[in-house]
Amino acid sequence: MAREEATTYDKLAGEVEKQYKEGLSFLRKMGYLDKWPEYERFRAGDQWPPATPRTKSLPRPVFNLIKMIETHKVANVMSEQINMLFSREEADDTMEQDDTGDLFSRYSAATWERVKQDDINEEALDIAANTGTVAVHYHYDMSIQGGVKFPFIGEMDGEVIDPINIFFGNEQQRNVQRQPYIIISSRESVNSVREYARKNGMSKEMVSQIKPDKDTEDEGYDLAKVEIDDSKKIAVITKYWKGTGGEIMFCKIAGGMTIKKPTNTMLTRYPIAVMQWERRKKSIRGIGDTEGLIPNQKAVNTLVAMQILSVQLTGWPKLIYKKGAIDPSKVTNAPGEMIEDHLPVGQGDGAKYLTPGNISAVAGNLVEAILTYTRQMTGADEAATGSAPSADLNATAIMLLQKASAIPIESIKRRFYSFIEDIGRIWEDIWKVKYNLPRQVTLKDDDGEEYPAMFDGSQYQEVPMSLKIDVGPSSTYSESLMLSSLDKALDRGDIDYMQYLKYAPHAVVPFRDRLMKEMEEKKGVIGQMEQLVASMQPEEREMFQSMPPDQQFMFLQQNILAPQVPQAVPNQPTAVGM
Question: Which of 273, 351, 558, 560 is deepest in the core (most CB within 10 A)?
Answer without folding.
Answer: 273
